[in-house]
Request: fold
Amino acid sequence: MSRRSLTLLLASLLAVGLSLAAAVATVPYVALGPGPAYDTLGSVGGTPVITVKGRKTYPTQGMLDLTTVGVVPQLTLVEALKDWFDSDLAVVPREVVYPPDQTDAQVDAENTQAMTTSQDNATTAALRQLGIPIATQVVVAAVSKGSPAEGQLLPGDVVTAVDGKPVADGKALRTAVSSRTPGARVAVTVQRAGASRTLTLTTAAAKGETPARAVIGVEPQDRADYPFDVTIRLREVGGPSAGLMFALGIIDKLEPVQLTGGTHVAGTGEISPDGVVGPIGGIPQKLLGARKKGATVFLTPAGNCKEALGALPSGLRLVRVTTLKDALEGLRVLRDGGKPASCADPVSAAPAR
Reply:
């Protein structure tokens, strides 16, 4: 074999080896694409996404889709290069989705907890918007080791009173305990397993505080106590960004007015208990997923408007929202045939009829 032939053969073998390596070697990037869209007025696997018990509900029309982002967590070099040129996908460093100081399991657990919080916030925001009173329970979230409460109070206990006086929230519990002097005895009444019991604890001094403040060593958490049952079932989704659409779905079921007027509406946005809608990530992929599902209107957090305008699919109309009330007003204007506030409008513009 001539030297030239040998050189060509070796070069070919090297190219094949590099190609095989590129096909199997992973790179520290992930691909983000349009994920499924779920109708909060509908069902998934035969189970309603939102169920209300103990309160009259009304028929709904149209669709209120929450949108998601699909993540491909492992990419080879070849896949990353291919996805880079796919306009439907975004290739980003893996640490954007999976922080280097956390395992994948920890990220998944955080997303699951964020979804639970999102559902609670959505329910609270929806009921407050409808003017339905919501009571607050003070729940023991954690008990400090070696504290006066250890062995007495348990996570999950609902604290109802201190020394016979009702406590409305965690702040009231802290105030009632800290009004004592360290070493004083305090009677804490809790609900546990459906029964009420009163436990007497001796307060301790908070470490590192001058003057000394009395504590019992519990971490209280305020939890809404709804006057009827609202259940949200959607295991396939994590994170906080479904809050707005959950809240709208709850309201649509509890109000005789059909929010969409038969329109296919999609949207996204984190929501607080008082109804403020916050921006989220992955807006280009969510817009595309909504349009592929058939949505013609997309409720867009104001903080995402600029990015949304730059990634807007044909046939999808953006409605700008900053609060749950904004979203309801935008849907009302749409039902009336008007023009709701758009991402393209000046921020100060009001919806036009």
About this structure: The chain has two domains: 30-132+227-335, 135-225. The radius of gyration is 27 Å.
